[in-house]
Amino acid sequence: MTDLVLVLLAIAIVAILALLAGAGAAKLARLDGATYPAAIKHAAAAFAAVLALASTVSAALTTLRS
Predict the structure, then answer these.
(1) Does the pLDDT value for residue 2 go beyond 90?
(2) FRET pair for 8, CA 20 to 30 Å: which of 14, 40, 54, 61?
(3) C-alpha pair distances (Å), 41 with each of 24, 46, 52, 63
(4) Contact 50, 21 (CB under 8 A)
(5) Alpha-carbon distance 59 to 39, whole Å?
(6) What is the rounded distance in angstroms from the CA atom of residue 14 to the CA atom of residue 62?
């Protein structure tokens, strides 16, 4: 049961960090003068990059643990 809780907590933390990175990217894009659609594209790219990085790190750690 403890492993499940840790996995769910890690997923929640990664999701929150990805959302914060996306929001920060959108805010910086808007401050730079980008339109709303362009700012949303920047936010989506940052969100996807954080999730991809977390997935890659997770896969690497899983192979090291096994």
Answers:
(1) no
(2) 40
(3) 12, 9, 16, 33
(4) yes
(5) 30
(6) 16
C-alpha 55 chain-centroid distance: 10
Residue 43 and residue 35 in contact, taking contact as beta carbons nearer than 8 Å: no
Q: What are the residues whose beta carbons fall under 8 Å from the beta carbon of 14, sequence distance 6 or more?
A: 50, 51, 54
Q: Can you tell me the distance from the alpha carbon of 33 to that of 53, in angstroms, rounded to the nearest whole number?
A: 28
In this structure, are residues 47 and 21 in contact, taking their beta carbons and an 8 Å threshold? yes
Helix H segments across 1-66? 2-31, 36-65
pTM given for the model: 0.88
Q: What are 20-55's pLDDT values in tens digits?
A: 999 999 999 999 999 999 999 999 999 999 999 999
